[in-house]
Amino acid sequence: MTAMPRYRRWQIMAMEKNMLNIEHIVTNISDPAVFAKRDGGDGWTISEVLGHLADTDSYFLARAQALTAGEELPAGSGKSVDERVKDAGYAEQDANELLQRWLKVSAAYHEFMASLPEDDEDLWERPGRAADGGGFTLNDQLILSAYHDLDHLHQIVKIVRQ
């Protein structure tokens, strides 16, 4: 038996810790002016980060469900991440409402990922098909998810520390 099941558990725990840390930081911001700040230049606001996190976890959950069921994977929008965030108007939306949206979808995503048999290598290494570029496995997605949340946690900390 490989160490991969243990590593998968660690990745899911890291995603849950990232979620708790982001929730703690956002809910403890006492200066409303912080929510108008960007992480530099044309960077994102906290609301934009939270909207993006919710969108990403929604997509990742749908992708994981489709991949495990052997169904067609959800197609991307064809737009860049920045375009999707701007088009959604997250900068004008309430950060706490976006936080609650993300916490809900993130918890569902974590729960789904944790429910998968952690030692089923065929499942975890099953490549995606053409709809998402192919070759991107469920295992790849799990690793990306934990890093993705951590990267945006750092972005929020950068905004708060300005």
What does this structure look like?
It contains 6 helices and no strands. Helix 1 runs antiparallel to helix 4 (95-115). It has a single domain, classed as dinb family like domain (Four Helix Bundle (Hemerythrin (Met), subunit A)), CATH 1.20.120.450. Helices cover 64% and strands 0% of the residues. The mean pLDDT is 91. The chain has helices at 4-27, 46-69, 81-88, 95-115, 121-124, 138-160.
Blueprint (SSEs and pairs):
Blueprint: H1 4-27, H2 46-69, H3 81-88, H4 95-115, H5 121-124, H6 138-160
Helix pairs in contact: 1-4, 1-6, 2-3, 2-4, 2-6
Report Rg: 16 Å
Low-pLDDT stretches = none
In CATH, the homologous superfamily goes by the name dinb family like domain
Count the strands? 0
Shape: globular
Known CATH architecture? Up-down Bundle
CATH fold category name: Four Helix Bundle (Hemerythrin (Met), subunit A)
Query: What string gives the helices and strands in order?
Result: HHHHHH
Q: Please, how many helices?
A: 6
Task: State the end-to-end CA separation.
Answer: 47 Å
Work out the strand percent: under 5%
Instruction: Characterize the biggest β-sheet.
Output: none
Provide the number of structural domains: 1
Mean pLDDT: 91
- What structural class do helix, strand and pairing data support? mainly alpha
Residues in helices, as a percent range? 55-70%
Main CATH class: Mainly Alpha
